[in-house]
Write a structure and sequence with these properties.
The chain has a seven-stranded parallel β-sheet. Strands 2-3 form a two-stranded antiparallel ribbon. By secondary structure, it is α/β, with parallel strands linked by helices. The protein is globular, with a radius of gyration of 19 Å. Strand 2 and strand 3 form a beta hairpin. 49% of the residues are buried. The protein contains 15 helices and nine strands. The structure holds coproporphyrinogen III. The site of coproporphyrinogen III (CP3) has 21 residues, from strand 3 and strand 4.
Amino acid sequence: MSKIFVDACLGKKTPYTPVWMMRQAGRYLPEYMEVRSQAGDFLSLCKDYEKACEVSLQPVDILGVDAAIMFSDILVVPLEMGMDLKFVKGEGPVFSDPIQSMADVEKLDINKAAENLQYVYDTIKAIRGKLAADVALIGFCGAPWTLATYMIEGHGTKTYAKVKKIIYSNPELMHALLKKTTEALKLYLENQIKSGADVIMIFDSWAAALEESAYFEFSWNYIKEITHFLKSKYPQTPLIVFPKGISGYLDKIDGDFDVFGVDWSTPMELAKEKLGDKYVLQGNMEPTRLYDKKAIDEGIEKITAVMKNERHIFNLGHGILPDVPVENAQYFIKSVQEKTKF
Ligand code: CP3
């Protein structure tokens, strides 16, 4: 059975513009909070494929989105490469043993990671087994650069001081880390596709931390390498990239992928002008518009006026926030599906 989301990723005409939301499986849903409290902590939920499957399906059942995204986190890859990860309340993710030297990079184990991530593959199989045949399943990973920021800083950062110091003072170390992470991600994403992921998305959430030349050298080149590898082996699987906050660099974006995820700070007109002929565009409603129905209506109209229901997948321009009323999220999804109908 054809999937409207997959068709739209490949640039085919669809009966309406498909829609989903980044971070759609999460804390704004009381049903998610319930399963998460049963699981204990966040990582235990990621590792329990039955519960991870259950929360992945919640937004499909509750909101009627056109795609499910597997429930996991980008940071399980460095975790399974051998790093010590904890999610600390009020602080977010913390690695107690950040990468500081070539010896630290050498300790990371690519093959062990691809193998230890079996719980993710099991989650995908479980979701695919329960998901309606016309709803797509998105697998994902973090871009090597975004993962490396956490692996070197040890936690979220405002300045990126440690990781940028390495970029400029010890680029060999940075490239060694990025190369190894890239290899692990290739195996990981290939296994996700083999397990039943219909579409793959690469999140480069911290792309905007880098100046243009550094962005292409330390991030985009590695994303391109991953998408080229996947496309050469799995040409039918659509690939989405999401480099957040790089509207100034769009002229230089190229590579082997299908969909470019536009963040909320990038005007859709600009993305369409620079990339719309080559790639399907995904995005990009300001996530905080979800607090107000009138703001949702205006956001949908603004984007629809530019995209005209062509070569477009509706989404937020970044993740949904935890205190958004579920009713408003439902309203957003339903309104897009109704207003973009032919
Ligand atoms: O619905 C989905 O999108 C599926 C699952 C998903 C999660 N994280 C679950 C999660 C996805 C795709 C991610 C990606 C992710 N994780 C990114 C890239 C996307 C983006 O938003 O830019 C990043 C940078 C991370 C790293 C990460 N994970 C952080 C910084 C945090 C803490 C932030 C916070 O809101 O507390 C997490 C935890 C996390 N990942 C949660 C969820 C649902 C919250 C955990 C909880 O308290 O239940």
